[in-house]
Amino acid sequence: MSAATLALPTAAPRPGLVAGLAALAVTVLIWSSFFVSLRAGARAQLRPEELALIRFAPAGLGFLPLLVRRWRRIAAVPWPLLASILVGAGLPYFLIAGLGMRHAPVADGSTLIPGTLPLLVAVLGALLYRQRPPTARLPALLLIGAGVLVLMTLNHGQGELGRGYALFLLGSLMWANYTLALRRSGLSPLEGAALISTGSLALLLPWLLLHPPLGLLTLPAGQLALQGLIQGLGVGLVSTLCYAIAISRLGADTAAAAGALTPVLASLLALPLFGEMPGAGSLLGMALIVAGVVGASRPLPARR
Questions:
Q1: Which of 41, 56, 233, 248 has its CA 20 to 30 A from that of 33?
Q2: Which residues constitute the signal peptide according to the record (predicted)?
Q3: What is the rounded CA–CA span in Å between residue 231 and residue 52?
Q4: Which helix (H) or strand (E) holds 170?
């Protein structure tokens, strides 16, 4: 059972709720594959910006007509919110996550980035928008924090591994800011996806003109096709849209809780592909974080 299913009411679900939960399920599946594909790209010695080209080129070109049509509405959003959306889910976030995956295994990256989202959404909401998290959710958020400390302490998160952990937590902070900014912007899921995808491609192209993506030419055809399927189609088009739909239908807190099953699925995929068996520290930290995410996603008791 996923964290999202815990929020189902006993009565017939609303159409919007069903769409939101379906979007979360697709998002979790694609996120798990996302971390695996980042690790595969790092092991193949591809530069992060080369992977970014696979990620943003199809989506950026596909969303370009929509961005042109909706530009006046998008440009009316305050620029700090637009910047938070583009940075937090676009090219800068992708490069940070890709660099982190060069220093740490799939289990740790897929645990720290989506797993800490509920905690960081709550922290940023309180600091930036004075949105104090409900008292009932504080134990779950503390569990997430404890899981991070356990994972870093038992795994001796220093040196190479420590750099990976720092990059993963920075990536999660960026995604949390995007989650809050998209909700406050009033943009539709399609408009948000267009801004992220086409804007990231526009940022990436000048760099690639100076540093051609020659590494892609040496990648086996099968691996290139797999990366294109996961990054270009799955992450670039489908998950960007699905996560935006989940935010609009279920709210930022519940959408962030979609990360509960991501580390489990990603770790299961990484075991046969890379032979990466999570150690005791990773497993214990993952268990605490997943438990905290599930707790944070549960519906709050009704006020009397």
A1: 248
A2: none
A3: 8
A4: helix 159-185
How is the chain split into domains, by residue range? 19-297
What is the distance between the alpha carbons of residues 42 and 246, in angstroms, rounded to a whole number? 30
Smallest CA-to-CA distance from 197 within 246, 146, 235 is with 235
Other residues' Cβ atoms within 10 Å of the Cβ of residue 298:
15
Distance CA 4, CA 258 (A): 7
pTM (predicted TM-score): 0.82
Per-residue pLDDT of the chain (304 residues; tens, 9 = 90+): 333 333 333 344 566 778 877 887 787 778 788 888 888 888 877 888 888 988 898 889 999 999 999 999 999 999 999 999 999 999 999 999 999 998 889 999 999 998 898 899 999 999 988 888 888 888 989 999 999 999 888 887 667 888 999 999 999 999 999 989 998 999 987 899 899 999 999 999 998 888 888 778 777 787 778 778 887 777 767 876 787 787 778 776 676 666 677 888 889 888 888 888 888 888 999 999 988 887 877 766 655 5
Distance between CA atoms of residues 110 and 128, nearest Å: 26
Distance CA 283, CA 162 (A): 17
Distance CA 216, CA 227 (A): 11
Instruction: Please choose, from the candidates 75, 94, 65, 89, the residue with its C-alpha nearest in 3D space to the C-alpha of residue 182.
Output: 89
Host H or E run for residue 139 = helix 138-154
Distance of alpha carbon 61 from the chain centroid: 21
Say which residues have a Cβ less than 8 Å from residue 236's Cβ, sequence separation at least 6.
55, 56, 58, 59, 60, 197
Q: Which two tokens stand for residue 279?
A: 């150690």
